[in-house]
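Data availability (excerpt). The following record was deposited with the supplementary files.
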Amino acid sequence: TRDALSTLLTNPGEAPEGERLFTEYSPQGFASVALRLRDERNPVDKGWQVALRPLGASCSFERFPVRVENVTGELRIDGRGVDVELAAERDGSPVRIQGEALYQNIQDTGAGSLGIWVEAERVALDDDLRHALGVFRPALRDRWDELRPAGSAAATVALWRDPGESLYTYDVQVELAGARLDPVKSPLLLED
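Predicted structure:
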């Protein structure tokens, strides 16, 4: 399946976009795949579509390596890009992933656009999250070590990239309900 999807997501003469997506999101597990080809009798039908439905799979974004498990939902892949509508879990807490990745046009240089929204409830403030923050931005791991968080938090993350850009833009909102902060430089213990 990996080779077939990698080929499907790569335009002739371009860098292997499909292979990059497998590397960047590190999917593991099983999925069902449905292929719909163009119906030439229907002038409204614009082409092919692949529906990829994870069956309790897992994935991890390389720039924020926290693996989510029990991934279900659907990735719809067609000639314009990929639509994402997934549900998952992290340590038994719900995670929702939605968005789209649009291919670049032949005239564009660089990557296509991307917009992903992730909402997580009751995420454990653990060593895995500390490590992921350090991969994402090393200064955040230093802040973590200063504040010494524990417990859990809810988070919403928006990730996007404009066409032709190689860098991502992020917006992260965290609600520390059920959390505790034990700052190194303060005698105060802050609890929910």
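Summary of structural features: The mean pLDDT is 83.
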